[in-house]
Amino acid sequence: MVLLHRNVAELGEQEGHAASSENRSEDLFQSVEHMEALLKAKDEEINKLQNRKSDFQDLEEEREKIIKRMQELEQRNFELEQQVLKAEQSLASSLDARQQAEDEVRKVIEVLDIKIFDLNSLRQSLANFLDKDQLGGSSEC
């Protein structure tokens, strides 16, 4: 009877171990599934980060191109500003030269007006002289 009791106890223990093993197997299976789900999520996250890295590299290349283009445009803008300054200086110089020419023309016109007045006065004087000479010469003959 002791032997039977012992066998029953062993069977109970084996059953407990079997149930415990089954529980452990179920726990392990759930843990494996959980780990696989985490691994899949991490793989997806890695793929997203790699895509972002690729996008970031593309953005960085585009940024470099934009910076280069901006520097080129700034250089071109500087050159155009220099051309505008030269054109403004040339215009100012031309305006000064034009003003000087106009002033000289005015002076020449004033001198010519005086000369014309003098010539008109001389012509009038000669005409008067000739008239007097003719009048005086006719009376002497």
TrEMBL record:
It comes from the Eukaryota. One of its GO terms (molecular function) is G protein-coupled glutamate receptor binding. PANTHER family: HOMER (PTHR10918). Residues 32-104 form a coiled coil. Keywords: Coiled coil. InterPro entries: Homer. This is Homer protein-like 3.
